[in-house]
Amino acid sequence: MTKIEQYYNKFHEEHRLETRHGKVEFTVSLKYINECLEKIKSEAGKDNATIKIADIGAGTGRYSVELCHEGFDVTAVELVKHNLEILRAKHENIKTWQGNAMDLSFLEDETFDVTLLFGPLYHLHKKEDKLKALAEAKRITKPGGFILAAYVMNEYSVITYCFKEHKFTQVKEKGGLSDDYHIVCNEDELYDYVRLSDIDELNREAGLKREKIISADGPADFMRRELNEMTEEEFSGFLDFVLSICERPDLVGAGSHTVDILKR
Length: 264
What we know:
The protein is an alpha/beta fold.
């Protein structure tokens, strides 16, 4: 069993996107997924049932199930068997595969209108591995389709882990920070963290064109306790606030999750 499988067998992934900070990430991400789907419907003259979506690294299926309920043709790929079993129990109309984002050879070329890569890039440390995952997503996506790739951001991790959780000395002593405060991860660690400049470099090498890039959760992950203390009216206002600022260039990259929206 891999380290990722061990982690997700214990981690309550199903619960994460149902927390208030998770709801922010989900709501914002889904808005932009649907924006891409509307463009495909408009440009290609398709309806929901004829649009194919690949959810690579689908977890327990939060996005897959929602999009399937909306009438789209969804194929979900997930590495962790435990997550996949939960997903399969939710919706029998979702096509499912257990597989790795770096090798989607069981999926045909240019099959999907939209490909979601929400999760795999968090856990791939080597640049060449990230490029393999992006290349596979590009291969299975139709020309003119969209790839939405999610990343975990460097500054969020530095602020939270090094300073908020008081692990700065520990991280520094083990060589976990570069001189310019880029986190240095090794293969034994679960997550890898990037800056916008790292994402730009990956896109250049992968030959992918950006439509836009968003901060999927804005400051939500920094404010978990405060979000839980909000009234429903306050939380609704906070969600509207994040939706209004998530494309701002001066704020993208400042949150914990970034979604890069790419045109095939």
